[in-house]
Amino acid sequence: MNLIWLEDDLAIWPDVPQSELGKQLQNGQFGHCLWLTDDAASSTSSSTGQCAVVLFPAVTEPNDNAVASFAEVIAAITLPDVSQPMLIASPSHNLLGVWLACHLMQQGAAPVHAVARVRATCEQCFVEDGWDQFVYDVLYQLQA
Predict the structure, then answer these.
(1) Of the four, 48, 58, 68, 96, which is 20 to 30 A from 42 by CA?
(2) How far is residue 80's CA from residue 133's CA, in Å, rounded to a whole number?
(3) pLDDT per residue over 71-83, tens digit each?
(4) Which residues pair with 37 in a beta bridge?
(5) Contact 55/43 with Cβ under 8 angstroms?
């Protein structure tokens, strides 16, 4: 298990096997969970039943056409005000990285600093072709 604690009340879990998610949530450590996925089939699985599911458009190769839809999904995510820690989990480093960069930008970080912190936190984010530019395109779309 590779939980990464960003703050006292916020943890991310990149590249999590869906089968492990339910086990982690059963211990009661987290008051809320977001499951970030681009797989509609996984959004209805019983192991994600304790999570709010955020379904992103499937992107095999990041491009300009996907920026607006990604930005729309990100903009719609609101974190609940809960007293227990929250877990943000995803089977994809890239989805989690885009969300985290947007979250950091909402907290006041400039896009370049948000992306740098994501990369420092989770080295596997944005290493696939096109994702390094795609995350900036999404961030700038959200700023517009």
Answers:
(1) 68
(2) 29
(3) 999 999 988 777 7
(4) 55
(5) yes
